[in-house]
Amino acid sequence: MPGLLLMENAARSCVDVLLRLGISGPIGICCGRGNNGGDGFAMARRLDLLGYPVKVFFWGKPEKLTGDAATNFQILTRTDIPILTNGSIDQMPIDFTKQLEAELIRADWIVDALLGTGFQGPLRPPLIDVIRRLNQSSAKRLAVDLPSGLDCDLGTPSVPTFRADHTCTFVAEKVGFQNLAAKSFLGTIHVVDIGAPRKLFA
Hints:
- The protein has helices at 3-21, 35-49, 67-77, 94-106, 127-136, 183-186, 198-201; strands spanning 27-31, 54-58, 83-85, 109-113, 140-144, 166-170, 188-192.
- The chain is of the alpha/beta class.
C-alpha cells in the first residue's frame, strides 16, 4: 500500500479519536522530521478542514524532509494553517520557545507527532526540553502511534518521555506496551485502523 495512503488513513483515524473525545479549543501539533511528523502534518490539514483552530510546531529544517512527510509538509504550506519551525535540530531559539509556551497555555489538546517507532534512546536536545515543556502543560495530550521517548519494542521510557492521556496506535498495540514501565505514559490506548488488510494482520 502506498505510504501516502497509510499516512492519510492514520491521520483520519487519529482525528476521529479526537472528535470522539471532544475538542473545545485550539490544537497544537508537535511534529518531528520522520513519518510520525508526516502523520501530524496530515492531521493538521484534516482538523483545519473540519474548522478547528490548529497550529503546527515543527522541529527541523523543511528542506531536510523526505518522502511522504515532505509531501504532506508541502501540502500544508499551501494552506492557511500556521507552521512554526525552529529551523534546527540542535537548538530551540528563544522566540520559538516563547511561541510554544504561549500555545501550550491556550491549547485544549497537544498532539505528539515527534518520534515514531524507529526511536531508540537516549533523547537528544532540543527534544529533551520540548517534551518536558509538553508534559508540564495543562492541555490534554494525545500521542500518535506511541509517546515520544518510549521504545516500542521494549517499552522502556527515556528521560523524559511524553506522558499521554491518550495514545492512538496503528494496526495493533506495540509489544513494548505490555511493559509495566510504559503504562503511565500511554494513557488510554486506542488501536486505530490505517487500512491494513485483515488477512495480513491475522
